Here is the input.
Amino acid sequence: MKREIHAPHGSKLSCKGWHQEAALRMLMNNLDPDVAEEPDKLIVYGGSGRAARNWEAFDAIVKSLRELENDETLLVQSGKPVGIFRTHPYSPRVLIANSNLVANWATWEHFRELEKKGLMMYGQMTAGSWIYIGTQGILQGTYETFAEIARKRHNGSLAGTLTLTAGLGGMGGAQPLAVTMNNGVVIVVEVDEHRIQRRLETRYLDEMATDFDTAMQMAQSAMAAKK
Here is the structure.
């Protein structure tokens, strides 16, 4: 059954304290359909970056956070709650460790084996730590990268230039807006139409073409107009 997750809003607590509430809302916000790339699969961004190992683990985390006292700490290992300890009010309410492997076994082959057994997940940088803020988080760095190219090669502006790149996922989706913020034109190749539509809806992308010739015509017109 399809599940749709939305974080609580407002000043009403659903946990026993605001520290626990903050962690719960961040976890749920990571999986909000407006934020996550594939929320049904618990994938937040990056193709495989998850907020929780599986739905059973997600429910266990939510339950643990709602029951967590103000002098306790929840331990989460690769998207699964593994322990709650009595600590003190000034200690962290949640400690998370994702995808940690001893160096000798830190290979993709060993990781995939553990993942298939349900013993580990890939948390990316902000998916498994519940602090993903959407494509806006990568937009600034992507914009600055193109801005530096403009400064070094094009007299401070990408106007009249064409950038060819690929990928409109959680990270790559920042590229078209980053280019147009620098006054350039960009063609982004993406095989997943759902991702294209999503970037159109959020206005990170202006138009969609389904064939190369049309895309080039659109790009050339925009370049000529320096739009």
